[in-house]
Specification:
- By secondary structure, this protein is α/β, with parallel strands linked by helices.
- The chain has a single domain, classed as Aldolase class I (TIM Barrel).
- The protein is built from eight helices and eight strands; from the N terminus they run E-H-E-H-E-H-E-H-E-E-H-E-H-E-H-H.
- It has an eight-stranded parallel beta sheet with strand order 1-8-7-6-5-4-3-2.
- Strand 4, helix 4 and strand 5 form a beta-alpha-beta unit.
- The longest helix has 15 residues.
- The N and C termini lie far apart (about 45 Å).
- The mean pLDDT is about 95.
- Bound molecules: D-xylitol-5-phosphate and zinc ion.
- The site of D-xylitol-5-phosphate (DX5) has 21 residues, from strand 2, strand 8 and helix 7.
- D-xylitol-5-phosphate (DX5) binds next to strand 2, strand 8 and helix 7.
Length: about 240
């Protein structure tokens, strides 16, 4: 029997920190070329910002484009869902063949069930928290997800300034991971640049999303290499 879910790439693993370029500020007229360029530049994973114009003001793309990314990409990718009714639509994004589906705790009414729904497709389920949401909001669900994404900007747009309050959240998550004997990834998203990446890496982030710091640079490879160097130097 054929599954409707396209094959995933290898799961995101061990060699962290990983920089995930965000497909928000790329040239969407040449999406497959952009993905190829990023992979050739050394990207080991990608981050896809799905926005519906309601949960956040901007409207980007949905399932059809995510499926096109799956066909074009050979590296794993994360779908960051910024849409209404995440409980209902998470399954649609998990079924695209995404490696990680990240849902916002602020947008969920049934966190445990929705995380289980995502995991049951073979996809990793991550929880995101917006800048005004404390870590305590996701604490009861840490054993039900494989990652927490700390937003260091208000979700909705690329190119915003990094909010340093994210650093304490990353540190707290790292402490909780140790004290509870858990094994989840700690992600960070928003305002990452050559100026801010060392601080998030030092605080404990291992999945680091970078939009404008890669996609708005002339040379993706040198941008990625510099970010990676700075992230690893402080580890
Ligand atoms: C913001 C998105 C981010 C964004 C990051 O809502 O979730 O992933 O693309 O862009 P930069 O790195 O430019 O802040
Ligand atoms: Zn994002």
């Amino acid at each position: 029997m054929h599954s409707s879910i396209p094959p995933r790439t290898a799961p995101l693993v061990a060699d962290t920190p990983v920089i995930l370029p965000a497909l928000l500020l790329c040239d969407f007229g040449h999406l497959a070329d952009e993905i190829k360029k990023l992979e050739e530049a050394g990207a080991k994973a990608l981050h896809l910002d799905v926005m519906d114009g309601q949960f956040v003001p901007q409207l980007t793309y949905g399932k059809v484009v995510v499926e096109a990314v799956r066909r074009a990409a050979t590296v794993p990718f994360e779908v960051h869902m910024m849409v209404e009714n995440q409980d209902d639509s998470a399954i649609d994004y998990a079924a695209t063949g995404a490696d990680i589906v990240t849902v916002h705790i602020e947008g969920l009414t049934r966190p445990k069930e929705t995380l289980a729904t995502i995991s049951n497709t073979g996809c990793q389920a991550h929880l995101a928290i917006s800048p005004n949401t404390p870590v305590s909001a996701v604490e009861p669900f840490l054993s039900h997800c494989t990652g927490v994404l700390v937003m260091s900007v208000e979700p909705g747009f690329g190119g915003q300034a990094f909010q340093p309050s994210a650093l304490d959240k990353i540190r707290l998550l790292r402490e909780l991971r140790t004290s509870q004997g858990q094994n989840f990834h700690i992600g960070v998203d928003g305002g990452i640049s050559t100026k801010t990446i060392a601080s998030v890496s030092q605080a404990g982030a291992d999945l680091i999303v970078a939009g404008s710091a890669v996609l708005q640079q002339e040379n993706y490879a040198s941008a990625l290499q510099e970010l990676e160097y700075l992230a690893r130097k402080t580890k």
